[in-house]
Amino acid sequence: MRARVFALVLAGSLLSLTACGSGSSSNPPTHSSTPTVGASPLSDDAKVKVVAWFSDKRHHEGMQALDHDLSAYKRMTVLDPVRTDNFHNIRDTCGDLDHDVPILKAFGPIPDPQTQALWTSTLTNIQQGVTDCLASLTDSTGSRTDASNTNTTQLAKAKAEITKGDTDYGALADRVGDVLGVRTPSPGADPTSS
């Protein structure tokens, strides 16, 4: 998923930054996606800092967990939440996101303000969606409901918020590619094919 996109972006950017550092006069890689509107160029030093942030093992593992949680959530919300087996799976995936998002929020800031703004928006929207998701699956006393008592209106609101966070996360991947001047695969593309 996106963790693979980030890995490709980072690998490509490390190569291009190495070329810059060795005095190479090669042209920078072309980027086929639409550039982020208002994206400000970064110095080579700033690019190295962005690469370092995304390369940090804790950050990389955190984004892998977020990718996994979002993928599981999307698979579950396509299904009917009123069915008992889907209800439990949705509750579990919202619980996983509820566990992981506060950990991700504790990361230091991404050393590019525009990318950090996307990261903050991603986590804020997902956290709000998770709060609504879990609330839709509990009754007024805070006890877990069964599938037939699910607040489907609030669950739909949660889905919209988490989807917005996921969209922001995709924009973050595009922004990193733009900042680093590397081509990122389109969503759903197989990163192993050439």
From TrEMBL:
Which keywords accompany this UniProt record?
A: Signal
The Low complexity compositionally biased stretches are: 22-36
| Secretion signal, residue range per the UniProt entry | 1-21
Disordered: region residues: 21-41
Q: Which domain of life is it from?
A: Bacteria
Annotated protein name in UniProt: Lipoprotein
- Organism annotation: Streptomyces laculatispora
